[in-house]
C-alpha cells in the first residue's frame, strides 16, 4: 500500500506557507516507510494518488501553494510519465506544479523533453545540489534549464560533512544567483537555521522545524 505524505515549504521572508512537497511512502510491517524503489509503483498510480492529495490541499488553501513532486532521471524522460503529468495539470485548474529532479538528466535528454514541461508550465528544480547532484559537467549542463535548485543541509549532517556545509552553501547560493534560479534551503531544524536562511536570502525553506512529512489529513 502506498500514499503520499506532505511536508510544508515556507517562505523564508514571511515565514508563511508557500507550498508542499509530496513524498511517496509505502506501508510495510505496520509502518509507513520511504520506498527503496520509487518506480515500483507505476506512475499512473502515483499521479492518481497525488491528485487526491493535491485536491485536498487546494480545497484548504485558496492562495494556490506550490506543489512539488520528485522524479528520477528515468521518470523525467519517460513519455508516459510526461503524459500523466500533463493530464494532472489539465485536471487541476491553476495547479502550480514543480518537478524536483533527484538525478540530473543528460544534456541531450533535456533538449528532447524540457520544452514539453515548459509548454505546460511545469517548473523544474534540481534537488540535493552539492550532495546527490554535485558540481560537475552534467550538473552545469542542467542548470540553464532549471527554475530553481534545492540545497539539503540534512544530507551533509547525515554524511558527517558538517565542516563542508557552509562553504558548499555559499557556493550554491552564488550559483543560484549566477543562473538566476530560485533557491530552497532544506534541513531547517531550529531557529538558528531559520536565521541562516534569511541571511542567505533564500526563497523557500523546509525541514523538521516546521514539520516532518505527515499524511495531509493529519496535518
What does this protein look like?
With 219 residues, the protein is an alpha/beta fold. The chain contains eight helices and nine strands. The chain has helices at 43-60, 73-76, 79-91, 107-119, 137-142, 153-158, 162-178, 191-199; strands spanning 2-11, 17-28, 31-33, 66-71, 97-101, 123-126, 148-152, 182-186, 204-206. An eight-stranded mixed β-barrel has the order 1-2-4-5-6-7-8-9. α1 (43-60) packs parallel to α3. The mean pLDDT is 95.
The shape, in one word, is globular
Which ranges are low-confidence, i.e. pLDDT below 50, for 5 or more consecutive residues? none
Total beta strands: 9
How far the N terminus sits from the C terminus, by CA atoms, comes to 20 Å
Pattern of helices and strands: EEEHEHHEHEHEHHEHE
Kindly state the mean pLDDT as a whole number?
95
Q: How is the secondary structure organized here?
A:
Blueprint: E1 2-11, E2 17-28, E3 31-33, H1 43-60, E4 66-71, H2 73-76, H3 79-91, E5 97-101, H4 107-119, E6 123-126, H5 137-142, E7 148-152, H6 153-158, H7 162-178, E8 182-186, H8 191-199, E9 204-206
Parallel strand pairs: 2-4, 4-5, 5-6, 6-7, 7-8, 8-9
Antiparallel strand pairs: 1-2, 1-9, 2-3
Helix pairs in contact: 1-3
Task: Give a quick precis of the structure.
This protein is 39% helix and 24% strand. It is built from eight helices and nine strands. The mean pLDDT is 95.
